[in-house]
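Much of what follows relies on a compact textual record of a protein's fold. The record below shows the convention in full:
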Amino acid sequence: MLRKYAELYRKELLENVIPFWENHSIDANHGGYFTCLTAEGNVYDTDKFIWLQARQVWMFSKLYHGLEAKTQWKTIAKHGIDFLEKYGRDNKGNWYFSLSQKGNPLVQPYNIFSDCFAAMAFAEFFKVEANATYAQIATDTFQNILSRKDNPKGKYNKRYPGTRNMQDFALPMILCNLALELEHILGKGQVEDVLNSLVDLVMNQFYDAERGLVYENISSDGAFLDSFEGRLLNPGHAIEAMWFIMNIGLRKGDSELVKKAETIMYQQLERGWDETYGGILYFLDANGHPPEKLEWDLKLWWVHLETLVALAKTYAHNQSPKAEKWFQKVHDYTWNHFRDSDHGGEWFGYLNRQGELLLNLKGGKWIGCFHVPRALLEISMALET
């Protein structure tokens, strides 16, 4: 029975991980959050990355609205939302990638995931404080994302047009979750329309049923591309997407969609599991060739945590012995390797293939207050039901 894990995950969230960010990340002088933090919580770089600022706003808003209405959580979320509203966008409404500590733009808005998480942040904070401005920012940002989805990087796209036109998995994957996150603002009808096209794209085009693979990139017309990019597999991305799809299936009452997502999740997990050292590999090549990504054999925190979320949701849905067995296996690896038993607080993010700590940090340019606390919350909620 996995229910015993619910209390463990909730306790880790509330007693270790969230206090780390409460105590070390708040920039009291200039607003927003520090995300580049050492194992002890010391700030080692003051640049502010929009998607991490937004993720932290979302996390504390989610805790306030979904777990307990603690004044401190609302204050922390408001601290970030004010910084984002004041400094985060250019004059066309696109969200920058990074800012200086004081909020001056550093990197242009080339990365649409800044926009995705900004929309999530303002939509969730609107549940905390029903200011129409927040809902409008979330709505405008979401519509801007949809208008950019066929060429997300716009003028910052470095690909030569027309030779190998591709679509990547990351954006439709994120949109599957983002649309659900904004349903209270957008309305059921618009969300339904968006989800129908996304589910078809994810489950019938990026997913190769014959091979049981989810590709990171496919051609613009949905075909397999026999190239570095076309053969690229990211098991963690695919598994995370499947728990988004499970949520969509449960929302629609579509048991077949939930079952298909479960099947695909297991296929990616079984292929990605490192039988030599344990843990889930970061990247693979679909045909077994050397992967394009030099970091292919790293073990990353978010990959394992999102897998635990998918397994917890699967078990909560059907009490499958297979889900229970895999959950315990991934749980053991994750808690033994990523959790910081010496300093406490937030977890480490990067291991080498052998499972040894690679970077002694708790936050940086790509890791912040999101995957660990969100997973701990999602898993505890799934398993306590």
